């Protein structure tokens, strides 16, 4: 068969294929990037911290009256207890994220944190005050103090005032806790009985210092030279 006839039969006339006509329609291409959903806590909280938040909520009537949930309790406890609390990028409760962002950035909090870090009782006290002041920070309060649409200065000032009250009240109660512990001979929650003075090692003994269990005697007429008698 003639090659030209074969090309014609296969609808291949040797010309390049026509370019597709741009219809202007936008085709959605699935993104390969994974969006990180906002988590339930504003701070990085491990499993122990989440459990401690649940326990604290179950034990505290004040937290229940404030309407605090277990995740918020874990956040506030972690802020007081952890040596180096860290913020997550986002939180399902943006108001709590904002509150804790301002809290961790104040010098007053850092002074309080020095007295509550790794102290379960003091951290629980501070967490309760954080939760109560956060609960008192109503959304309508911040909207009333704003001066215009998109103006967040009023919201920020209301949050800073709530943070200041929380730190001040927590500081008073934590100081009272430590004063009471000191009055009972306890330091930061550790009973005095756990602190023992190490015993002195026995000496090898000398003319003036007897060995362990011995006593020095000065017999008459010895000229001042002691003799040891075993005890």
Question: Can you characterise this structure?
Answer:
This protein is mainly alpha-helical and 231 residues long. It has a domain at 47-188. The chain has helices at residues 3-9, 47-59, 61-65, 70-81, 94-104, 107-116, 120-136, 139-145, 153-183, and strands at 214-217, 227-230. Mean pLDDT is 76; it is low at 29-35, 142-151 and 189-231.
Layout of helices and strands, plus pairs?
Elements: H1 3-9, H2 47-59, H3 61-65, H4 70-81, H5 94-104, H6 107-116, H7 120-136, H8 139-145, H9 153-183, E1 214-217, E2 227-230
Antiparallel strand pairs: 1-2
Helix pairs in contact: 2-4, 4-7, 5-9, 6-9, 7-9, 8-9
Q: Which structural class should the secondary elements be placed in?
A: mainly alpha
Kindly state the number of beta strands: 2
Q: What is the makeup of the main sheet? A: 2 strands, antiparallel
pLDDT below 50 for ≥5 consecutive residues: which ranges?
A: 29-35, 142-151, 189-231
Mean pLDDT: 76
- Give the radius of gyration: 37 Å
Task: State the gist of this model.
The chain has 231 residues and is mostly helical. The protein contains nine helices and two strands, in the order H-H-H-H-H-H-H-H-H-E-E. A two-stranded antiparallel sheet has the order 1-2.
